[in-house]
Specification:
2 domains; 10 strands; alpha+beta; Rossmann fold; 8 helices; BirA Bifunctional Protein, domain 2; 5-stranded mixed sheet
Length: 223
């Protein structure tokens, strides 16, 4: 248990391991392997970033030597990469005996860190207009409205989850969609829908036969 509690700079940890395992050459082989890695890290100029942690264990049992994880302290996302030595894995799957070391990357975590550092522009939605409905009972009518807009060449999204209107509008705002067509029972009786301009905070009635033209006009720069 004392060994697995050791964590710190390579020199401190490896010196303590050598002290605890003095005279047990068969166990010190792993320590010598780690020292070799540290020596190469020093030669490449990044040994100051290394921490030796003897409690570290990977979730797979094919590793035959040192394992490692890569992280960014203080970011709160855990490790962003990890791997180790597996000299028998290729042979296990029918290949020739081949010494190997591999690494896997945590792509989602890396993307999160890159976004935090401003490497990506804010995502822009491709959707031009969102079709919302005030009641799940009006979904078929909303689908017809969405189809008419799509047939006119517009990029349309709509609610398929039965969310309340307020939740649909919250989704629209989060995605940055500029226009919302709201299909309501009262408006349909009048042959209309409500069109909301999210940027200008305006909402007005539009007759169904005029909807495509009105949406296109609202999408025109400077309108």
């Amino acid at each position: 248990m004392e060994l697995t509690s050791l964590r710190g700079s390579p020199e401190e940890v490896l010196s303590e391991v050598e002290r605890l395992l003095s005279g047990r050459d068969e166990y010190l082989a792993g320590c010598r392997s780690l020292r070799g890695i540290v020596d190469y890290a020093e030669a490449f100029g990044f040994s100051q970033y290394l921490t030796v942690d003897l409690s570290l264990a990977r979730g797979l049992d094919y590793y035959t030597g040192p394992v490692f994880e890569i992280g960014l302290p203080g970011e709160g996302v855990g490790s962003i990469a990890g791997g180790g030595r597996y000299d028998q894995l290729i042979e296990l799957y029918g290949g020739s005996p081949t010494p190997a070391t591999g690494i896997s990357l945590g792509i989602e975590r890396i993307m999160t860190l890159l976004e935090r550092r401003g490497f990506f522009e804010p995502r822009r939605t491709l959707t031009q207009v969102f079709v919302a409905c005030t009641s799940p009972a009006l979904r078929k009518e909303a689908i017809k409205v969405a189809k008419g807009l799509r047939d006119a060449g517009l990029r349309v999204d709509m609610d398929l989850m039965g969310r309340r209107l307020s939740n649909q509008l919250e989704y629209v705002d989060k995605k940055g969609i500029g226009l919302v067509v709201i299909v309501g029972e009262r408006e349909l009786r009048e042959g209309c829908v409500a069109l909301r301009d999210m940027g200008k905070k305006e909402q007005f009635k539009v007759r169904l036969e005029d909807l495509v033209e009105e949406v296109r006009a609202r999408l025109t720069p400077g309108s």
